[in-house]
Amino acid sequence: MLGVKTAALPSSLRRTNQRTVISLLLRLGMASRADLAKAAGISQPTAGKITTELLRLGILQEAGSAADSAGGPDGGTRLGRPGQLLRLNARRPRFLAIELGVSETCLSALPVAVELEDRWGSCFPTPKSPDAWLDMLKSVAQDWRPDQLWGVLVSVPGIVDEQAGKVLFSPNLHWLERINLPQLLHAAWGLPVLLVQEIRALALGHLTAEPDGEDFLLLDFGQGVGGAVVMESELFSPRIPLSGELGHTPVAGNQRRCGCGAVGCVETLVSEGGLLESFAAANGRGRTGARASWPAFRLHVNEAGLEPWLEDTLEDTARIVAGAINVLGVRRLVITGRLAEIPACISHFTDAVRKGAIWGRFGEVLCQTAQHHRAAGLVAAGLDRLVLPTDEEAGAISAARYAQTTA
Predict the structure, then answer these.
(1) For residue 205, which of 219, 291, 308, 357 sits 20 to 30 Å off, Cα-Cα?
(2) How far is the C-alpha of 128 from the C-alpha of 146, rounded, in Å?
(3) What angle do CA 299, 301, 303 make, to 5 degrees?
(4) Measured between alpha carbons, how far is 102 from 224 in angstroms, rounded to an integer?
(5) Distance of CA 298 to the CA centre of its chain
(6) In contact, 377 and 202? CB cutoff 8 Å
């Protein structure tokens, strides 16, 4: 379910079935117990037990009778007594979700049935110290009731050991490396805290939005450049907490210093800041110190087309991405972030990726742009790791907590 692989052993079979039911409802929206049993390949009594438990926990809610439905999820005619429809619970917020960005922090209280489109309730500029950041966060979240929440979910940049809850290295936000972020947030609200690397959260969100899609490499262009891989409906998670760091691949001839400490990283060219720096230099603004804006850059490209420096930057980036696709053996590329906002850039970039990818000689390399679904990815991770982990003993939410929040 939701990108986490679960072995169907006797000790975890119940959890496996619970997670399968949640995945099905993410895809179907609403379904009866009979429909869920059929889709999950389990008996109707087992489906009944699973859904009853999920209802008790507040993960599901009843959504009326299927009597007026023209057919089941597969379009077939329903026979016999109509069943009660179930859906993921949208009645109460269950998670405090935080997008901790380099320049801006956004947060919302989200239900299990999270909307796919990101809708952050509040945002504020990210301060340069953890104490100032926490003060701002508590001020913005003071009206929310932690007694109704199951946990705090945090999207964080950099290299993140998600199992240990530790930011190992954050090139663009170094104060994260010096603090115990879960401990800081737990002290503020007394809730379990889960860290998710920011691009991995985006990939989980895209998997939630398109659960039936094929394997993909998600590449996000923002204040940095990062990637994450989904294979066989699972978020790729290597043994060491390091993957998808395409932005820190060096480009020959690039002399810009990166926040990681190296010189020549591609993200110094194709991140938002890198593109604006090149744009200013190419149009004479660099000499005056005037800072170009993203709207001005986007308008310039839309009206004047791609300048040689921009073509070179896109082609350098495409060679790196094509190499990653060749190594991973995937043929679908999902592009999010700033670059996805400019059609001419996307067209030139994806053409160059297709030329560099070996699969392009034999078949089609699929490239698409997508919106950010980071909030949905955070909720998916929260359900997997806080609410219904494979090892029930490792669950971060106690029975007493469920009883308190569902009262």
Answers:
(1) 357
(2) 26
(3) 70
(4) 9
(5) 25
(6) yes
